[in-house]
Amino acid sequence: MENGDDRMNRWINEKRLIASFCDLVAIDSLSYRERDMADELLRRLKRLGFEVWEDDAGPKIGGSAGNIIAKLKGIVDKEALLFTAHMDTVQPGTAKTPLLSGKRIHTDGTTVLGGDDAAGIACILEMAASLREHKLDHGDIYVIFTVAEEMGLQGAKNLNPAVMEKVKANYGFVLDDAGKAGGVVAAAPAHVKRHITIRGKSAHAGVEPEKGIDAVRIMAEAVYHMQLGRLDEETTANLGMIKGGEAGNTVCGQLEILGEVRSRNPEKLTKQLKAMQRGFEEAARNWGGAVEFEDELLYGAIDLRRHPDLQKLLEKAAEKIGLPMDYHSSGGGSDANILNSLGFPCVTLSSAFYAMHTVQEYVDIEEMIRLTEFMLSITQSVEAVEKAGVRNLTTE
Q1: 235, 268, 299 — which closes off a domain?
Q2: I want to staple 244 with a disulfide (CB 3.0 to 4.6 A). Which of 197, 206, 255, 333 is the partner?
Q3: 34, 55, 88, 214: which one is catalytic?
Q4: Is 88 a catalytic residue?
Q5: Does the annotation mark 233 as catalytic?
Q6: pLDDT surpasses 70 at 393
Q7: Which pLDDT score, from 0 to 100, does residue 385 have?
Q8: What pTM was computed for the model?
């Protein structure tokens, strides 16, 4: 695009972006209590020309609002894009007052700011407003604002399948990572939660300990030989909660252990899960006990290398506006993990907030503008449908 950087910048209304962000931050929107935020966003999206739906995730998770799914119909035949952010904030997050100091917005230090993730929401709204105001060509644009992201991605996990059938996006962008515009979470791990039950046999510890089977001994032997913590740059394993026993004078007859394994590599994930299971089973056999496992895949992994077309789009859009790219990995999950599992090639973008989840949180206005430029550039960089052909949205 000729002189693309300057044009993108001129398309963005900085005052409107700042005002929108401050208005959103002032709305209390704690996890499971996003109703006021959802109502405001429904109004704003409708004013911008979106068709909107609210799903039933709220009742499912005990919240006051569902996820918002919206579609802005394209005016040309280009590949469809999905932009998402989450509506909820962490504590202390009520009665937030945004304060402007130079090119930063922060609070008085008694609450979080909520830039995580109001910065993402405000930039999405400004992108849509700029597209509409300047009559820019774009394909179908979908927006999802999720609830209860801070509570273990509960909103994304409960996206209504019937509503999600309306979303026909080729690529997705989750605005929910700290740092400068141009940051991209290119890899994030799959996460398996594991519940382990060790069954021994209770006995009086002073009178007849020989008749007992000590679940603690079984656990101790298993853990002694087990690799935990950071196994390599892609894989971690942890046993974080242990519960059991009846009394100090009783041989422990049962232990409940809650742990996890994370890895960006599916083979390593499976290998570690099997190794941990084998260790507990061998220890249980040695002491005459038994062990049971219950695993839950909380979300799958992200690997941008599996989606070269998405990476090419990111780099093309960044080059148009002279934005340096910063690819990095994450040890945690985001809504992008869930959306990838649903079949949408998706990455998380850095969204101009810093010191998240603390009362020192702030956003950088210049970086919010750059992020909005980046999203606009993405909308102008996607392929025409007739050139791109029909894409298979299932994960590779």
Answers
A1: 299
A2: 255
A3: 88
A4: yes
A5: no
A6: no
A7: 72
A8: 0.89
